[in-house]
Amino acid sequence: MTSPSLELVCPAGSLPALKAAIDHGADCVYLGFRDATNARNFAGLNFSEDAIIEGIRYAHDRNRKVFLALNTYPQPGGDGPWRRALDRAATHGIDAVILADPGLMEYAARVHSQLRLHLSVQGSATNIDAIAFYHRHFGIARAVLPRVLSLAQAEKVIEHSPVEIEVFGFGSLCVMAEGRCQLSSYATGESPNTHGVCSPAKAVRWTRTPRALEARLYDVLIDRYGDGEQAGYPTLCKGRFDVDGETYYAIEEPASLNTLEILPKLVAAGARAVKIEGRQRSPAYVAQVTKVWRAAIDACLAEHGRYTVRREWMTSLDNVAEGSQHTLGAYHRPWK
Fold first, then answer.
1. Which family does it belong to (predicted)?
2. pTM for this structure?
3. Binding region for [4Fe-4S] cluster
């Protein structure tokens, strides 16, 4: 594989997922330690010390990169696990650390100046001044752009950014306030920002009633599913709620972001990397999505103006998309 001008960054929630991503064409994988330092702290996911060492070796032997997600916010006086995670990242030879908290950035820049730092999407930097701030004070080399901008806004940020910009290409969407999930905290007392989990499994309740299959987080009713209707994992932002007498997806619909359609525009704008979401998904999902996006990026870079989205790509991605639906999300917001 030649070094691409657009890196494909894929999720690795486990060692098998990491190998699936590498084997199917990822340029980089991102992963987390098995604790609350990353935003996907689910049981059975993430990496032990031995697994992360093997994963780095597997990737580096094939000239691929490994990024470490430390994208949660430590509580006051409790940043020890996060600082130790940075120490471990430096020891293990991680290629970049994805951070959101400025205090951790300061620690990383001061103690481990050789570590390459990426600003996480949880940092919520949506404009040039914010990105420049993190670059000036902490030396970040890349920023992951939150999924709240229209395509025209994203293009403008990429054009003037002092650092590389990584954009999301495919995967689940959450509410349009990246990294600030108050909804999950309201219902369960835990959120991705503090405990690494959105809608933790211990809070999930499924109940069959005469009316429907009901999904709750503790006592909060999230959704009711009729016979034959596909039931998704209950998250507050994607529940159906009664608003002024109408029951619908009032906050966010269960659909996956898919930017294959605008890939040439992202490349032309100068995006340095495209990220696939889904560290909680299976190795089979990672393999399938990585394979499609590898083919699409290679075609886009080789064919220039002749690039078209192939039907089989969309079919393959829709089969694993949330709710079997895809959207351009905020990239396509005509009022912006």
1. Belongs to the peptidase U32 family. UbiU subfamily.
2. 0.88
3. 174, 181, 198, 237
